[in-house]
User: Fold this.
Amino acid sequence: MAQIIDLSTLAFSYGTHNLKVLAKAQGYQDSNFSNIVKYDYQPQISAQDGVLKCLKINDDVTSISVYKAGGEFVKTVDYDHSTAEKPFLISLVDAEIEQQDMVYIVCNGDGVNENKSNSVNPFAPGVDFATDSPEIVAQEAQRIADYFEANGTLPDTAYKVGDSRVIELTTGEQVEFIIGDFCHDDLVTPYDSGAKKAGLSLLPKDCLKAKQKWHSSNSNYPATSDMYKKTLPTILSQFPEEWQAVFRPVKKKVAEYGNSSKIIELETTLFLPTYIEIMGTVYYNGTTRNSKDGEGEQYAYYKEAEIPEGFSPATPDAKTGTFKGTGSSYQSRFGSKSTSNGLYYNTRALKGLGYNAASSDVHWTSSPYAGNSTHVCYVGSNGSGNGNSASNSCGVAPCFCI
Assistant:
């Protein structure tokens, strides 16, 4: 059973620390030390309306300096230790900072070093994806989309791919959602500004607790499937109203069915990613196809997945976060996972059933399995993909855009 240790409550000197765990229990021999993991302990900042909120400020700190992302000095303020248990506030309202500037802090004091914080935009609507209200998240999503529409690039933002937050459904079930990408999905209706891409695409870290059939019979037509006609609409109705109010319907490209060469667009609010959007490839291995071409591109969250040591990327000339098995195994957040020679895997494709799941399980994609009309692509419990009969039950990991 997984045990979670909150390192943020422990005191560390600034810098990178190599940590390992030793388990002890009364009446039992101590365990062997675990593998070593790196933990980077630095001051943290968020911002709202031009005010920085500073956390993880050590006792030896006497002052805090603010810099722009390029290293330009902004200001230094004395640190008041009486505020150590709550955010220390630094106002930048009167500082010479532009709306798009990112800033960071450096803590000063005897023996204090290696302490550069994260960077934030002090005037952007979104300051902390984990805690911002749905309305603020929506404002930041549109700001990102508007900038992308006008410039073809992403603006500076406090939000990052991989940032997550927990949303509790009206059923009481909790689901952790991750920023999967920016400006990835096409909106059904553009923002009022005219921007055509959804600013944020959110992916669940794990599946909902209950497995579901993709369809009641072995038919892999997405447009008429139970998944899109019944299951996903039911899940949508279980989101809190304040979240439903900011969801943006999108157009998702999928094969009409497994034996068809036609790509259709599903207009939907909740969706499952296609096989390529997760794996970065349409293939099961180097020669066998899983899904059809034309079903979109890989989400950044999966593309940025680490490739375990000793493995090779599936696409040698471009990192896709997908690697080829070698008949060995790799370490994941669910423990050791076996691999087979030549098969493709993605470490972030692994999902369990329910919030903070202790073990991984199979989960559906939206992609009909290429070459037949009965199977649908899924991701296995070891992070590889294959096809499964549509009437079988697998995990459901609903995504949405804002």
In short: Residues 7-40 form one domain. The longest strand covers residues 174-182. The chain has a mean pLDDT of 91. Residues 272 and 348 are 15 Å apart (CA to CA).
